[in-house]
Design a protein that fits this description.
alpha/beta, 7 helices, single chain, about 25% helix, 5-stranded antiparallel beta sheet, 5-stranded mixed beta sheet, about 280 residues
Length: about 280
């Protein structure tokens, strides 16, 4: 079977070998496999048209640079590996997050001071992130936090994709719910991303404006606009790399269609996307 041509990574080969020998998958080897559907979710790099793949009923999300995410039934493994469009196939690995609470003010304040940013955020030539898009892919992002709103109360988050919520997913993707700044402002966001968590701390350190603390606890790009994805496992028992890969694809698509920054103009070319 597969792998002799070097198209499958070693972890995926080990997982397939274990399955052939009837050995239960455990630990990192089981990440990406959906037992009920006998299907793998794998990261792929391809070149060329993939309509033949879709014609066989394969679900493939093409992202950028030839990379994508493939839902691969066990019965189609050999066929896919034999296709000339496939350059490489890799099994996702679990992404580990700290379980402790990340206080927003401590993250933002300590990170800013440790990076010597306090001085450069002051004066006529202050660097505040105005005209820049900051993107964060994480868990537990509180999109209604005051630090992610402008003085007039409007949301600085132009795009939010909650992968775990039920609703209308972004174009080209099959899960989750997509929200605009208007949706957030109207209180329409519902789902697992609500509430302070790891993502709130990370986004606060990157882009919080300090409204909740009277301006004291600000992040780095405190006047930037924001794109955010609440990562969620697609039925695999934990968040893995393919969830993040999907998320980065959604972010890049959203960045290309992001609304102009407040006051007119455009987001700064070449400086419009920070991924965290």
């Amino acid at each position: 079977m597969a792998g002799e041509d070097g198209k499958a990574d070693s972890y995926l080969e080990m997982a397939w070998q274990a399955q052939r020998e009837g050995i239960p998958l455990q630990g990192d080897l089981e990440v990406g496999y959906e037992k009920e559907d006998a299907q793998w979710t794998v990261l792929v790099r391809t070149a060329g048209d993939l309509e033949d793949w879709r014609g066989r009923g394969l679900e493939v999300t093409e992202l950028y640079g030839g990379y994508g995410v493939l839902r691969l039934p066990a019965s189609e493994e050999e066929w896919v590996l034999a296709q000339p469009q496939l350059i490489y196939m890799e099994k996702p690995h679990r992404m580990n997050w700290g379980t402790e609470t990340w206080p927003l003010r401590a993250c933002a304040d300590q990170g800013r001071r440790a990076s010597c940013l306090t001085g450069v955020q002051e004066g006529e030539e202050a660097l505040t992130g105005a005209g820049v898009l900051v993107a964060v892919l994480d868990t537990g992002i509180d999109v209604e936090h005051p630090d992610f709103r402008r003085e007039d109360g409007s949301s600085r988050i132009l795009y939010y994709w909650d992968q775990a919520a039920e609703g209308t997913p972004p174009e080209g993707f099959a899960r989750g719910a997509e929200y605009t700044a208007a949706d957030i402002g109207a209180g329409a966001v519902r789902g697992s991303g609500a509430g302070q968590g790891h993502g709130t701390g990370v986004l606060g350190a990157a882009a919080g404006n300090g409204r909740a603390s009277g301006g004291r606890y600000r992040g780095v790009a405190c006047e930037s606009d924001i794109l955010a994805v609440n990562l969620a496992a697609a039925g695999k028992g934990g968040i893995s790399e393919d969830d993040g890969t999907d998320g980065s694809g959604g972010i890049r698509s959203a960045a290309g269609g992001a609304a102009a920054p407040p006051g007119g103009g455009q987001h700064q070319p070449g400086k419009q996307l920070w991924l965290s």
